[in-house]
Amino acid sequence: MTVKKNTGLIRIENVSHTFHTDTGVLPVLNDLTLSVPKNGFTAIVGPSGCGKSTVTRLVAGLLKPDKGTVWLQGQKVNTPRDIVGMAFQNPVLLEWRTILQNVMLPLEIVPNAMSSAEREARAQDLLKLVGLSGFEQKRPSELSGGMRQRASLCRALVHRPEVLILDEPFGALDAFTREDLWQTMHRLREEEPFTGVLITHDLRESIFLADEVVVLSGRPATVQYCQKLKQRGPKSLDQLYTPEAIQTLNILREQIKIARKDEEDKL
Amino acid sequence: MRQLAVPLFAIILFLLFWEMLVWANGWPNYKMASPSDLWPAFWRFKWLFFTFGWETLWRTVLGLIIAIIVGVLLGMVMGFSKVVREGLYPLLVGFNAIPKATVVPIVALMFVGQHDLNTVLIAFMISFFPIAVSVSIGLSTLEPEYRDILRALGASKFTIFWKIALPKTLPEFFGALKVAVTLAFIGTNLMEIVSPHGRGLGALFDSGKTNSDYPLMFAVLIALAILGIALYYVVVFLERIFAGWAERQAD
């Protein structure tokens, strides 16, 4: 495999992608370049349907770009690789497994030398970290939406992936549960270092969780704006209401407006 | 205790009503048998009941097993490939639309004298359709995220099928199997009644008819009901083991 020196652990280089459907061609990404440093956490925001999810599928290797290259740890991404963990808006837990068995699922796929006792201990540690101790033997349907999403995060992290891809994982939750999960994310990041990509529609979520917020333009998407965030490490919810944070939010909101207008112009 | 007593009481009440009806109308045996005639009729031919009952049972089960294998395979290719689904679906619907009672004499003539073969064949033909449809729908409606969580880890297609698609389809599969087991049983009996000199409870029923032995015919009906109930509950039992998770716990 070609090895290339570059700065980011994840590097998307001049990627363009077009979907061919029954109704015609749909260009989604146009010359997109962005990189995420090791243990960095980048949030990607943009108008609905601008191709944000396509970016996650490219990084996960579920999709090959028409043009350009995606690099992970200096290696070209051609196929899915087990150094990636994913969580979606739909927690997709398997109803025929207990919560513990659901979390352990990736360990059955990814080659590892762990004994079944070690796997169980690993899953239990994660569940404890997200506050799901005591729910190991429950079925997914017995849990609330927020708890299911917590379990889904544990499953994404159980095999200690280098990269964690989150595709709107908190989008379907109510505001209070969402804020709870934001705190959980910070705890996870402290205990389980990973390089993260977060797709979100929520600007407050993006500045609360990420080190960098990338605004994508309208479809076909390219990087329109990058906002580095100063504060790192554990944050408290109060920090969302500082003048600084409000200013950042305003800038991002303006950028989204531009992106949406840009999309209308392209249509 | 109550769970057993109530249905038992209902059955006894039903038999009493039946007996009364025959007695009050003064119906002779060749018009309508009464429950008290059934036991002597069964006892007289008890060995035939056991050997033919076994015959009917294994033919039904074998037909059903073939239906499961073929149905699941058909369902799998239809579930995974849109082209195959579009091609096969009209054929299957057409095949299923033909009342199997009309196919029975054709198969009986085709494989004349091969009672085991033609009976198993009809049991299979009548029962594979719901299985194929349920498996194909279960697989084709699998949300892409379910596939992606394993695919992103580099899992093979077979692993995804084995760990996700197959168990997720099990509740639909067992729903279809409950229908299929009843259908297979109907198929077996249709063929046994039509096929001359065949064996099985259907043949016993037919010989009861030729000899105007009404009590025997009714005794066969009861034997068939018992066998049908047993088969159905075997499926229910298997469902509890393999797809019990799909049952919602009461809050």
Q: How would you describe this structure to a colleague?
A:
- The complex is a heterodimer of chains A (267) and B (251).
- Chain A is globular and about 55 Å long.
- In chain A, strands 6-7-8-3-9-10 form a 6-stranded mixed β-sheet, sandwiched between helices. In chain A, strands 2-1-4-5 form a 4-stranded antiparallel β-sheet.
- With 267 residues, chain A is an alpha/beta fold.
- Chain A has helices at residues 52-59, 99-109, 116-129, 145-157, 175-191, 203-209, 243-266; strands at residues 10-21, 24-36, 41-45, 67-72, 75-76, 84-88, 163-167, 195-199, 212-216, 223-228.
- The termini of chain A are far apart.
- Chain A has 7 helices and 10 strands.
- Chain B has a single domain, classed as Orthogonal Bundle (MetI-like fold), CATH 1.10.3720.
- The longest helix of chain B is centred in the last third of the chain and has 38 residues, at 157-194.
- The model of chain B has no long low-confidence stretch (mean pLDDT 89).
- In chain B, helix 3 (46-80) packs antiparallel against helix 4 (82-97) and helix 5 (100-110) packs across helix 6.
- Chain B contains 10 helices and no strands.
Blueprint of the fold:
The complex is a heterodimer of chains A (267) and B (251).
Chain A: E1 10-21, E2 24-36, E3 41-45, H1 52-59, E4 67-72, E5 75-76, E6 84-88, H2 99-109, H3 116-129, H4 145-157, E7 163-167, H5 175-191, E8 195-199, H6 203-209, E9 212-216, E10 223-228, H7 243-266
Parallel strand pairs in A: 3-8, 3-9, 6-7, 7-8
Antiparallel strand pairs in A: 1-2, 1-4, 4-5, 9-10
Helix pairs in contact in A: 2-3, 2-4
Chain B: H1 2-25, H2 35-44, H3 46-80, H4 82-97, H5 100-110, H6 115-140, H7 144-151, H8 157-194, H9 201-210, H10 214-243
Helix pairs in contact in B: 2-10, 3-4, 3-6, 3-8, 3-9, 5-6, 5-8, 6-8, 7-8, 8-9, 8-10, 9-10
